[in-house]
Amino acid sequence: MSRLDSALLAPIKASERLLETLLFGYRLPVACVFLLVTLFLGWQAVQIRPDASFVKMIPSSHPWVQNYLEYRDDLAGLGNSIRVVVAPTEGDILDKRFQQTLKEVTDELFFISGVDRSALQSIWTPNVRWTEVTEEGFVGGPVIPDGYDGSAQSLEALRVNILRSGQLGRLVANDFGSALIQVPLLDRDPETGNRLDYQHFSEQLEALVRDKYSSDKIEIHITGFAKVVGDLIDGAVQVALFFGIALLVTLVLLYLYSHSLTGTLIPLLCSVMAVIWQLGLLRLLGYGLDPYSMLVPFLVFAIAVSHGVQIINTVRLEAAAGACKFTAARNAFRSIYIAGVTALLSDGLGFVTLMVIDIQVIRDLAVAAALGVMVIVLTNLFLLPLLISWTGVGKRAIHKARHGKEHSAVIWRALTRFARPRGALVAVACAVGLALVGVQAGQSLKIGDLSAGAPELRANSRYNLDNAYITAHYANSSDVFVVMVKTPAEQCSSFETLQRVDRFQYYLGNVAGVQSSVSLVDVAERVTAGLNEGNPKWRSVSRNQYVINSSLRYIPQGLMNDDCSLMPVIVFLEDHRAETLTRLASAVERFASDYSSDDVQFLMAAGNAGFEAATNEVIADAQYKMLIWVYGVVSLLCLLTFRSIRTVICIITPLALTSLLCQALMAQLSIGVKVATLPVIALGVGIGVDYGIYIYSRLNTFLKQGMALPQAYFETLRSTGKSVAFTGLTLAIGVVLWVFSPIRFQADMGLLLTFMFLWNMLGALILLPALTCLLNPVRAPYKNAVTQS
After folding, report:
1. Which ranges does the record mark as transmembrane (predicted)?
2. Considering just the CA atoms, what is the radius of gyration of the chain in Å?
């Protein structure tokens, strides 16, 4: 270990001396460089824009998603799409004025940039048709009758055409109470070539459709991925409000803690600078802010404040010992540097471990968080001591540091009981009990969404109310799972293929959670029966290929590709809960293993439910892999810094306990592990490890001076422990306000982060010294050591 120490830590110590000389030997030039960089990155930061992409939200390298991407052009409308429902408040859709409104809404949607116009479906689009068997054969046409003029006869013809088209329950509500417009979207704007701007698209939907056509007689309901993202971005704008509130709360509490105006404003200034630098660097690197990474700037601010408080506290103590403001700042930098760099490296590398998750939006979040930690090293570990060397912390703060220790001495003496064998055993026993409770309660933790609609939004949000309306009034739900049946060219309509797909659809009908399914088979069977006087006995797949070919003269768009080598089976589900998706995916895999061949292959998956099933698989696989990586990286850095496995156990065990309890809390609150919540544990570990590293670093310093463990811990609490407790409480108060956010996933993250901030703080203050006491029995406490101190 001594070789490792000299090889790895010696450069860090050398860099400490070099940076100390640079910072405090050339203060004004260095400060000017920081100012210029801040101005430049601030200009970049104000130009950063919300950024969201459908492909970024799904695991693009997952085999199921790869199947979709390969055949995306053949699956129009089965990927990213929205559904717009126009509903009269009174009566039904067979009304002249309503039909005029429906036509205008359809036209409005058709011309919105980003819409796949060729695949848009409404009863007013020519690609939605009806067919009927007559004495003269098949007849058909568009659902809107020729010569439609809104008269009673035209409306009656429209009603008949809707019934004959098979669109009742699909594009028309079961009770004729509303009409639906299916709007497939393109990933890129065909006019500009840029990725679809979901915020702008959502704003257009609101302005050009909902606001324009809603009235006391018409209601508009909109669902789909693009609308969810748009609502998330609109709601996430309120993050700025919560950030402002957190800033004010931190300002007040930091002043009450430091009793110094400069000791309050400078850490906050440096922490805000860290956020500005992070946003500016993201803009320079070509990143935007998606709905999930919008929360990262606050976490960067929180980590920066945590480290800033440690530096201000150390400066106060140095000044109270008699050092001038320049010397106090320099000594603070020297004493904080190694522990601070270690903690921030642990944070950054812990965030980087999120890269193991094959979902681009999480990887972008990892990049944003890692960049934020990198700039904290510059703004808070370097710039903050530099600025405070000019201003100092003020006489009142120094006076409080000298004479205010006894006010909290009772609390610190009480905590030193956990640094004695008896108290340590009690603390460890309680920790073991909590760990067992966490493991047991965490068994019910689920992967994926646990409720209908969009769980990222509140249950009473407009989107979820719209989704509930559509689910209640239409036979086909908005949760669509698509299985792709791949065949050689011109073979998707062969008897062997259709017979196998027919069996597959019957099989799906017996899977719990499946509402219905649609494929080319349904067209062939319906037309075959129609060719035989509508006799239901003929509603099956004919063995005669000529009959099949005759039945498929007209095929609705989207049920096969141009060369008849791909046939989608569209499965409508009751919901998109994780259990439903897992059950269906397992059923499809079983069928595919039994019936797939070289000529007919059943491939998953497209549709919003298909993508979510793939995402759930990736998250289930990456969840514990991510934890292993984050704890492995943090443990390795702690080992390199303190050169003791026992020390690593003391620092990591409280974090592991917090992770277990956080998972148990998620299970009890019915919060599933998904894209929005998976990063929380890694983020919590990254922030929580700072507490343990700072406390153990200071504790180790006192132990090396020959103090007994209780006395050393008492001195640690009076210095670093106080700032750790303050930071944990301040950050918890800041993020707990998120529970009032209109975005449910932000409220969930606020609750979970509050829990992790508090438990990590308590673990560092109680469990860490207890483990240190039990794992280092040679450091027996001296009798009355604390009292004498």
Report:
1. 21-43, 235-257, 264-286, 292-315, 336-357, 369-393, 423-442, 626-642, 649-671, 677-697, 724-745, 751-775
2. 32
Q: If the chain, 789 residues long, is cut into consecutive pieces of 10 residues, what is the mean pLDDT of each piece?
A: 48 76 90 95 88 76 87 71 91 91 93 87 88 71 87 91 86 91 83 78 90 92 86 73 80 84 91 93 86 79 84 86 88 84 79 82 87 90 92 82 62 86 92 92 81 78 88 82 90 88 91 88 81 75 82 74 87 85 92 89 87 87 82 83 85 89 88 79 73 84 86 85 81 80 80 87 90 72 40
Q: What is the pLDDT of residue 634?
A: 83
Which structure tokens are listed for 507?
């099989």
Ramachandran sector of residue 194 (left: φ over 0; alpha: ψ -120 to 50; beta: rest) = beta
Q: Contact at 8 Å (CB) between 340 and 332?
A: no
Residue 572 has phi, psi (to 5 degrees) of -100, 130
DSSP letters of 225-256?
A: HHHHHHHHHHHHTTHHHHHHHHHHHHHHHHHH
757 Cβ neighbours under 8 A, 6+ residues apart: 684, 687, 688, 728, 731, 732, 735
Q: What's the confidence (pLDDT) of residue 718?
A: 80
d(CA 381, CA 386): 9
Extract the tokens encoding 290.
């998606």
* pLDDT at residue 71, as a whole number: 83
pLDDT score, position 352: 83
Nearest to 200 by CA among 71, 56, 52, 315: 52
The tokens 């999930």 sit on which residue? 292
**Whole-angstrom distance, CA of residue 545 vs CA of residue 563:** 17
Residue 305 C-alpha from the chain's centroid: 24
| Rounded Cα–Cα distance for residues 130 and 707 (Å) | 89
Show contacts of 418-422: CB within 8 Å, 24+ apart: 418/766, 418/767, 418/769, 418/770, 418/773, 419/709, 419/710, 419/712, 419/713, 419/769, 419/770, 419/772, 419/773, 419/781, 420/709, 420/710, 420/773, 420/781, 421/773, 421/774, 421/781
Confidence at residue 781, expressed as pLDDT on a 0 to 100 scale? 44
User: What are residue 6's DSSP bridge partners?
Assistant: none
Whole-number Cα distances in Å, 248 to 255, 731, 742: 11, 12, 21
**Centroid of chain to Cα 347:** 19
DSSP result, 612-659: HHHHHHHHHHHHHHHHHHHHHHHHHHHHHHH--HHHHHHHHHHHHHHH
**At residue 785, what is the residue type?**
A
List of domains in the chain: 1-47+238-397 (1.20.1640.10), 77-234 (no CATH), 459-613 (no CATH)
pLDDT reported for residue 209: 92
Alpha-carbon distance 81 to 624, whole Å?
Answer: 33
pLDDT score recorded for residue 4: 41
Alpha carbon distance 339, 435 (integer Å): 28
Give the Cα separation of 576 and 478 in Å (integer). 9
